[in-house]
Amino acid sequence: PLVRRLKEEYDFEESLYFDTDSTNDQAKKALIIVDMQNDFLPRGSLAVAGGDEVLPVVNKIQSEFNLIVATQDWHPVDHASFASNHAGKNAMDIIDLDGLQQILWPDHCVQGSKGAEFSVDLETHRIELIVRKGTNKRIDSYSAFFDNGHKKSTGLAGYLIERGVQQVTVCGLAADFCVYYTAMDALELGFQAEILLDGTRAIDPDGFEKKIQLFKKKGGKLISKKERSPNGE
Ligand code: VGL
Ligand code: ZN
């Protein structure tokens, strides 16, 4: 009954107040800001080159959205994605983790650490939901929607659907991992999805280039804030 009531209220509002195409469009778009955390920024333990350059873009584009959500990579110290937790292994080695290929990373985004905090330069006051992922020590989660094995949902899809969202724009770090898998899952779930190119940076730019071919093939779009507003406003 709650869902039905929400649905009725939503339809009701839509027909009465959000009846023009442009405002309708606004109400149905969400911005997903992925992992803008100290460890992915310069001097962080898994620093993405140029990661700090996306901050002004990610801050500015928020004004175009009525709903802003964010994610935080949020690992326990003994997380299986950390090379330090596997004797004789180094960062960037690949292991089998419960049947899935797992890239090993330097320790990063440990729950409660400074490295796991959002950059102080990220505009956060309009963020309505923060999804924390990678919290189970045996399970890694790049996407904001599912863990890497697609075994469990984070609840984000349900949240967005209940908020009437049909289109998501994904930005943040890193382009070739958490941003890419978030955007791909969004498409698969039936959302229209776009990646904000000047609002993201890759760990491996060549790898990202290959991955986004598949994203485009599946119907994903690439946008850039600069193109939308040539004067940078
Ligand atoms: C990420 C590697 C490991 C990301 C998270 O946010 O893209 N990459 N954990
Ligand atoms: Zn991680």
TrEMBL record:
Pfam families: Isochorismatase
Start and end residues of each Isochorismatase-like domain: 30-226
Superkingdom as given in the UniProt entry: Bacteria
Alphabetical list of CDD domains matching this protein: nicotinamidase (cd01011)
Keywords: Hydrolase, Metal-binding, Pyridine nucleotide biosynthesis
GO molecular function: nicotinamidase activity
Hydrolase recorded as keyword: yes
Keyword Hydrolase: yes
Pathway: Cofactor biosynthesis; nicotinate biosynthesis; nicotinate from nicotinamide: step 1/1
E.C. code: 3.5.1.19
Protein family membership: Belongs to the isochorismatase family.
Protein name per Swiss-Prot or TrEMBL: nicotinamidase
Species this protein is from: Albibacterium profundi
Gene: pncA
